[in-house]
Amino acid sequence: MIIPMIHCYRQGGYNIVLDVNSGAVHSVDDIIFDILRDCNTPDDIERLKAETWGGPGHEIPDRGLDKYGADELSEALDEIGQLIGMGTLFSGDVFSDDNFSDKLSGPSDENIVKALCLHVAHDCNLRCRYCFAGGGKYHGERGLMSPEVGAAAIDFLLAASGNRRRLEVDFFGGEPLLNFGAVRTITEYGKARAASLGKEIRFTLTTNGVLLDGEKERFINSEMHNVVLSLDGRRAVNDRMRSNRAGAGSYDMIKDKFLRLAAAREGSGNKNKSQNKSYYVRGTFTRENLDFGSDVMHLAQLGFRHVSVEPVVSPEGADYAILEQDLPRVFAEYEALAQKLLELRGTEDEFDFFHFMIDLEGGPCVYKRAAGCGAGGEYLAVAPDGALYPCHQFVGRDDFVMGDVFGGVTDLKLRAQFRSANVYTKPACLACFAKFYCSGGCAASSYFINGDILKPYETGCEMQRKRTECAIMLKVADMINAGEGGLRPL
C-alpha cells in the first residue's frame, strides 16, 4: 500500500498544500504550512502532538516551530486533525491495490478504440530542426493517404469503438493540407457513417498554415471541432527552427493566416461564447529560447486567446536540447508566466495557457488520471498505408506496428504493454506528487529518451512538476479571489 502523500510549496504569495491521493488543495496560514512541511504522515502529526503537549510546561519541540506558542500549535494541530478526518489531508490511495493496474488495462479481450490520428500526409513543406518525423517521412518514403485507406480507418474505428458514441479523429502529418482532398473526403465519409450508427466523430486538424487559403479555412471552421496551429512565438525564434525547404522562415507566411482563422473560430471575440470552436496556437521551446515566456506573451499580444508552448523532446546530443542545468531558468520562466497570467485575470488581455489549465473540481476520470492519453489502447495512429501504431510518434518504426485498419490490432502483446502502462506500473511515478496530473508522462518520450515506455523522461518530469505547481497556484488564487477559500478536491 502506498503511503499517504502531501506536497507543500510556496508560490505567488500563497502557502499551498496538495493532498496527492484525494486531489484536495489547501491554502493555509504559515503555522499549518510549517507543520505540514515537516510532517510526512499522520504518524508524524501524532508524534508532534505528543512532543508539544506532553513535555513539562508544554515545551515547544526544536523542529523549526519554536517561533510559535503552544496554544497556537495546539489550535493548528486541531485544524489539521479535522482535515485528516474529512479525508482531504494524508488521504489513503484507494487505487493502489494489487488489482488496480489490471482494472485499468481492462479485460484481455477488450479492444475498445475511441480515437485515431490519421497520417494523411507523410510529407511536409517545412523542414523544422526539431521535427521528430524526419521532415514528414517518418523513417520511410514520402506518401499520401488515399481516401480509400481513410475510409477503412473510419470503418475500423466505428467497429472497434464498442458502445462508445463520441469518437475522435485527428488529421496529422507531415502537413495534412498537402492532402486536403482526402481530408475533405474522409471527413464527409466519417460523419455520414457515424451518424448512420448513432455515433459522432469529432474531427481535428494540426497544420503549419503555409497552405491555408479561403477554401481551406472555411472547411476547417465548418468541420473541425478543434485545430492546432503550429507557430513557435517571436519571428526570430520561430524562423530559427521552422523554415521551408529553401531555408526561409515561416513566420511571415503564416501569422496573418492563423490570426484570421482564430478570429473566425472565436466568433464575436468573446472566448466564452458556446458557439465558438476551439483552437490552440502551439509552439515548441528549446534551449535556444529559454525565455519562452516572451514567446507565449508575444502570441497572446498578437491576439491569440489559446496558447500552448511546450518544451522540446530531442535526441541526445542535439544542440537545442533542454539540459538538466537549464531547469532553474525554465522554472523561473514558468513562475513568471504564471504571475503574468494572474495579473491579466479579468482583463481583455486574458488568455489560456494550455499547460496551466487543470480542473480541481471535476477533473478527468480515474482512468485518465492514472493512465493518460490511452496510446496503444483506446488511441492509435494510422500511417498512409493503413498500418496501426501506438501513437503518432511511433509511426514508421517497424517494432511498433500493431496491425492495420483492414485486419485490426494483431499484435496483442504490444497492445497489452501499452495498456498496462500507468502510474502504478512506473516506479518513478509512485512517489511523485504530480502523477495524477501528467498520468505518468508521454510513453513516446520515455521510450526515445530511456528505451522503455515505463521509465519516464526525468527532465520532462521536472518541468511537469513545476507546471503543475503553477497551475494549482492559479486555481488557488482564482478561488480565493472569488471568496471560495482554498480547498477543492478532484
Rounded to an integer in angstroms, the radius of gyration calculated over CA atoms is 25 Å
Would you count the extended β strands for me? 16
Rounded average pLDDT: 89
**Alpha-beta classification:** alpha/beta
How many angstroms does the end-to-end distance come to?
21 Å
As residue ranges, the low-confidence spans are 54-60, 268-275, 486-490
Strand order of the largest sheet: 12-11-10-9-8-7-4-13-14-15-16
Helical segment count: 16
Overall description:
- There is one protein chain.
- The strands form 3 sheets. This protein has an 11-stranded mixed β-sheet, covered by helices on one side. The protein has a 3-stranded antiparallel β-sheet with strand order 1-2-3, with helices on both faces.
- The two termini are 21 Å apart.
- With 490 residues, it is α/β, with parallel strands linked by helices.
- It has 16 helices and 16 strands.
- The chain has a domain at 6-95 and 476-481.
- It is globular, with a radius of gyration of 25 Å.
- α2 packs antiparallel against α3 (70-86), α5 runs parallel beside α6 (180-196) and α11 (327-344) runs parallel beside α16.
